[in-house]
Amino acid sequence: MNDLTIGKVAAAAGVPVATIRFYERQGLVPAPGRNASGYRVYDPATVDRLRFIVRAKALGFTLEEIRELLMLRVDEQATCREIREIAAEKIAMVRKKIRTLQEMERALTTLSAECGAGLEIDECPILTYLSRKDDDD
Length: 137
Hints:
This protein is mostly helical and 137 residues long.
């Protein structure tokens, strides 16, 4: 079984057919060949490539970053250091997002604590904060 239909590739990689077509349009998955009957058929290596993409996305890599990783993966001149640098950039971005989320949590916690159950709607600290003009910050 060298040639796979898109349905078989999707099942093996654990992705919807539409995802495979999207990745093809993005140039992350090579376009399939055709068999003697004219059906589109995929190389079994496509399943591994899709799994790679799915795992990279789960780690937060963008499609452009995944494209770069895929190119480095087959570049005989590439080194693990290059991959590590990409990962370090991703770690820094994740840490920045975590800090931003923590700031959001603190602000919401503070506003929620100020919001008394007996307050009228026009006294609600949360709505007041959200309604402030930019120069009030």
